[in-house]
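Check out a protein:
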Amino acid sequence: MEIVPRGSPADMEAPPDARASEPVSSSADGRPGGTSPGGSPRRTVQASVNDLPDLTGRLIKEGLHEEYLQYRARYLMWRQGGASGAVGEVTELGTTRRQSPEAYLHELWHPTPQKFDFFYTVSYWVAVVGVVGAMILTFVNFAPLVHKPGKLHATVLLRIDFVGDFFFTLSTYLSYFELINAPETGRVRYIFPDWGPIRERVNLESVVGVVVYLLAMLVWDTACVTRLMPVELSPLAAIVFVKLPIAIGGLGFFVGGFCEVIHNWDRSWRKLEWWISVLNALAGFLFLVGGGLGPFLPAAVGSAFGSACFALGLVVYTTTSALLIVMWRSNDFGLTLLRQLNATLRAGAQHVSISPTVDGVFIRHDTGFPRPSQTDAAGQARDRRGSGQAGSRIGRLSTRGVAFLVLYCWLFAAGIMNTLAAWFLATGPSSVALTMFSDVLWLFVAAIVLVIHSSLTSVPNQQPYRLAMLAMRGTLVLATVHQTLIFARWLENLRHPAWWSA
């Protein structure tokens, strides 16, 4: 990393900043300057360069500005003695990097630093939002097993169930969003992709798995929204709009988990993605059994059977979503259905990105590095916004950091459930205001912390940064304990029907 001030010798030696060239006159002895035959002073080289047209806007319009900046950065590094040989020299022939086909994956999947940032951010939110949704839905399906729902009880649980379904649907959509924008097509796509480039790079089971997960959640949401409506459904309507969508959704989750197993079947059982795929397939099977049998069994048995299957499956999904954070920590941005993406940073490729500063430009080198195993990889995740030294490996998100991320997800989930419970169970306006203010406050704090972690994985190991981080963690741990106690209090009251009718 280096700061190159404007007007410095390095900047003067660099190629002209995207300017066209034109001949510069010289004196009789070959040097620039001097006088013309007519007696007028000849223009200096610097004056001629300053008069050249600025082509920066044209480069940006043609989409070549980033390539020019990378070229200029490499040129400056070469002029300052920072080059170690060009790729293709005899010294590198026969090396592992030249022989391995994975050496070109980085350029294929991460053609620009912006693409790297895209995969980094989206995969983070796939994992985090999935953890939050699974935590909320786990409670919703365990609660009926604690106490038979009353009218108000069911109202609260249905609202919480709707929020949990929303987060789970958002997680599956973000996986779809990552898939359809994996190839560099020049613009961001949200719903309708260009399947041609996707089929060239992505395996069939990956496409099927991601799409089926999203469709399964959308069908599942149909049943959730239907149960929220204040209408009494006929037996036929209940089958069409509630029982059948739940069964189809369970089948979709099983198919998605099966696709994950196929995609990672050739991986060693010691690899994390292998275990996540198998566990997701198990959770999908539980959803298939609960959704396929539970709604069609007698009411006395079917409700408890379905809730038990869904609750166990959601415990598994909560675990695997937390493990996805571990994969993200290791730069495995493809998670379990885009494994090609996980291999890109094992090839040792490099990116150079440049940002303007007050004094000049900030040059950041993102250097890939080989990772011998998944276990070693977990300790070598790079900080995209770290100190900037080439090849630096500071900024790894530790195992403790992953545990705190899961803790913040629970704080966010508990804040949502406590807020909804306070809204429906408060005894008066003042009670609603006081109770909800605390819950909503910590809900927003947890959301802000999760957003910060999406771009910052570590802080410098020096004061006052370390003290601030420790103070933040301590405060959020206390907030989590507080929100959990509130959650446990009204969860315990599920056992007392009189409390619900109050």
Residues 176 and 210 are 6 Å apart (CA to CA). DSSP finds 19 helices and three strands in the chain.
